[in-house]
What does this fold into?
Amino acid sequence: MPVNKDFYTLAGSSGQSTGYEIDQSIRFNDDDNPRMGRTPSSTGTEETWTWSFWIKRSTIGTLQVIFQIGADKNNCDQFFFNTSDQLEYEHLDSGSNTDELKTTQVFRDTSAWYHIVLVADTTNSVTSERIRIYVNGERVTSFASSTYPTQNYDTHINSSSYENAIGCNNTGSDRVFGGYMTEIVMLDGTAADPSSFGETNSSGIWVPKSVSGLTFGTNGFHIDGRDSADLGDDESGQGND
It folds into this structure.
């Protein structure tokens, strides 16, 4: 698998630590068509889940998939940077967006680490609470476009019918991500907020904290890239490598 381990101490964008540091990341070299993938052995909670990761871009101006889950690129849930460098979540059926959140904010700083959290809880009675995006601990509220799922809608995520693909299109080497990721966490059955993954230090900087005490659920995982011989090793204790 053409993904490499790079050592990088992550203690917030200023390098200031609150006692927890991430000392490694996984490099996704887009020239090598990198991807990581796993198909769940059983279906978990398709309505409620959380993805969290720290990410640093090295290529901008191209469509780059962070993760994609579904039958193909026209029938899937996907989270990606679009060609305008906006962050975008889509649920696609037959090529049509049934749900979409596209930020007005753009992400073009290739020197910065961003902490991004995507939360789904389609059981929520409040429409705008069913999909939420957070960046560096702050909820994104300004969207270029926004369409929310109907209540109790099943996403493709946590289905045993589909592969979880990280770093590119799940059906092949397409729309690949170029950059670094670390502390890739997915919680199956929990709609968590950013405080589960990070905190503000004494200098007002959003920094990571340990995720070891979280409830990961049936298909949840924690990938930190600490083992260069097994980059997809799940550190959550669930064994979802």
Remarks:
- The two ends are 14 Å apart (CA to CA).
- Residues 5-9, 11-17 have pLDDT under 50 and may be disordered.
